[in-house]
């Protein structure tokens, strides 16, 4: 059984905090109280509620003065706009250059943008610090991370502070032991020694600061990392977790790559390459993988095998948990194992099939909620969809061989690439349509590619799956990737199968909507959607579901 914790477990009990002082909202005040409480345990100094209130009021006054100097904060809201300087924006103007080992990532849940991205960011920052001049490092006294926007608004429920701290102490997403992250929940006051040059200093969760949720940030998922000498900043870098575990930083320059053999920026162009050269979608994508990444076919296939096996493993592990309680204040019981057992007992084969696919998706998504290792396909929040389909196709009477699964993963990646290129994969930018919707479209493409369908049928299947997720908001209850996220993965997997069945049985040329139109609609809807429905827990179920 996994350890269950509530927000109140994260810091030691203290007397009820005073009411928030003027100039600071209640959430920020309570977060400061929690951080001060943790610091008190580590230093042996006790802070009274009055002293905490005074400290919060002082900090609020400083921040207010800064805002007023900058023209005030009237009309500030949760930002979902992107700076035109970001590479994720600039790269959308040319051909698709993303490759599989950038796209499919292994890392801890529950979120690619709020967990894997921040861990990659802080690991990168620590590596940068190790390369600083010795005279600069001798002054260092600590490291500090500030989370902004959506990272601050829902980071607590995503375990962002644990992921960020893990990166600072040298942990990488693909290799971190989930038990290390679990221990951070169980022991929130734990001290972690970090060595930089000749200096060793201690870090804790108190060094990860939940900062402003609203403001004009370059990306909704913005964070800064600082190397400090007391109150003096020795070195600072601004970073952005841009979705799907992809990261950028201020001044980011993308790595040099080769040119694609079959350049495309739309599904229409991709399909034309396939049809005019008598190739499958998977063939075109494989040729580009080789040309852009510089790897050979065997290396690409080895990576795809690793991803497929990791997907299967997440489902198997998820099914092994019987009715445990997932971390966090929702007290949500897992149900993948129960659904799996009961689906196997269904009298009718069709009922059994739907129940089993749903169970597989629940299993992988519950693993994500536990903070265990999952695969971004395209994100952590949607990490139950593709693995459910891969598991259903391989661990059943179908026993689809691995070479076919590879082809399916390439076709699915192509759909994901196009959504990243022309819209978004980040719920903080586009809502859940950008996560579950894209995952479902990718899974539909995977199924139809494995069935040997022609390019137009693959496009039609992906389009149908995405179309019927348009407008889906992201409103995680209490900021945890559990409600409604876990069940959404099951619905996304089932919708993918339905989309594939429709596409393979209809007259393909009569399909009325093309994938490019639907991806454009995804992008338009993302821009039009109210920011409070973009992974902020400010509306929807997050606002209306009362936790007792």
UniProtKB/TrEMBL annotation:
GO MF term set: 4 iron, 4 sulfur cluster binding; L-serine ammonia-lyase activity; metal ion binding
Record protein name field: L-serine ammonia-lyase
UniProt entry keywords in alphabetical sequence: 4Fe-4S, Gluconeogenesis, Iron, Iron-sulfur, Lyase, Metal-binding
Catalytic activity: L-serine = pyruvate + NH4(+)
PANTHER family: L-SERINE DEHYDRATASE, L-SERINE DEHYDRATASE 1
Domain Serine dehydratase beta chain: 102-250
Pathways per UniProt: Carbohydrate biosynthesis; gluconeogenesis
A family per Pfam: SDH_beta
Location of region: Disordered: 1-25
Reported cofactor(s): [4Fe-4S] cluster
């Amino acid at each position: 059984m996994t350890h269950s914790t509530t927000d109140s477990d994260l810091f030691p009990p203290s007397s009820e905090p005073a009411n928030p002082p003027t100039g600071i909202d209640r959430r920020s005040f309570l977060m400061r109280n929690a951080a001060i409480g943790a610091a008190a345990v580590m230093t042996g100094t006790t802070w009274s509620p009055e002293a905490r209130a005074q400290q919060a009021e002082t900090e609020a006054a400083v921040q207010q003065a800064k805002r007023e100097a900058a023209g005030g904060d009237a009309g500030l809201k949760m930002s979902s706009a992107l700076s035109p300087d970001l590479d994720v924006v600039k790269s959308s103007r040319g051909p698709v250059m993303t490759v599989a080992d950038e796209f499919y990532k292994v890392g801890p849940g529950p979120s690619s943008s709020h967990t894997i991205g921040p861990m990659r960011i802080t690991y990168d920052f620590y590596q940068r610090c190790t390369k600083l001049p010795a005279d600069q490092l001798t002054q260092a006294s600590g490291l500090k991370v500030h989370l902004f926007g959506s990272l601050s608004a829902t980071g607590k429920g995503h375990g962002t502070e644990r992921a960020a701290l893990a990166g600072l102490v040298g942990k990488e997403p693909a290799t971190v032991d989930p038990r290390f992250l679990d221990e951070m929940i169980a022991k929130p006051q734990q001290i972690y020694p970090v060595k930089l040059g000749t200096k060793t200093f201690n870090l804790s969760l108190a060094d990860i600061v939940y900062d402003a949720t609203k403001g004009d940030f370059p990306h909704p998922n913005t964070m800064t990392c600082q190397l400090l000498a007391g109150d003096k900043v020795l070195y600072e870098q601004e970073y952005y977790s841009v979705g799907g575990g992809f990261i950028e930083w201020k001044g980011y320059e993308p790595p040099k790559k080769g040119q694609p053999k079959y350049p495309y920026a739309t599904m229409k162009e991709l399909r034309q390459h396939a049809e005019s050269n008598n190739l499958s979608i998977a063939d075109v994508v494989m040729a580009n993988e080789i040309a852009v990444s510089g790897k050979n076919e065997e290396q690409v296939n080895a990576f795809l095998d690793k991803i497929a096996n990791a997907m299967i493993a997440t489902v198997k592990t998820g099914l092994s948990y019987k009715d445990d309680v997932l971390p966090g204040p929702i007290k949500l019981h897992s149900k993948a194992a129960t659904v799996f057992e009961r689906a196997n007992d269904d009298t009718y084969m069709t009922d059994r099939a739907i129940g089993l696919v749903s169970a597989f998706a629940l299993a992988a998504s519950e693993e994500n909620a536990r903070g265990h290792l999952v695969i971004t396909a395209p994100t952590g929040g949607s990490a139950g969809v593709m693995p459910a389909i891969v598991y259903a196709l391989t661990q059943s009477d179908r026993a689809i061989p691995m070479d076919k699964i590879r082809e399916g993963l390439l076709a699915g990646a192509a759909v994901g690439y196009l959504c990243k290129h022309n819209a978004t994969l980040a719920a903080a930018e586009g809502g859940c349509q950008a996560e579950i919707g894209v995952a479902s479209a990718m899974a539909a493409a995977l199924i139809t590619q494995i069935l040997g369908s022609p390019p137009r049928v693959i496009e039609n299947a992906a389009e149908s799956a995405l179309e019927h997720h348009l407008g889906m908001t992201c409103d995680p209850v209490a900021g945890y990737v559990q409600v409604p996220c876990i069940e959404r993965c099951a619905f996304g997997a089932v919708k993918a199968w339905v989309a594939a069945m429709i596409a393979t049985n209809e007259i393909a040329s009569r399909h009325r909507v093309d994938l490019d139109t639907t991806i454009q609609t995804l992008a338009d809807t993302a821009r039009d959607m109210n920011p409070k429905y973009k992974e902020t827990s400010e509306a929807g179920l997050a606002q209306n579901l009362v936790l007792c």
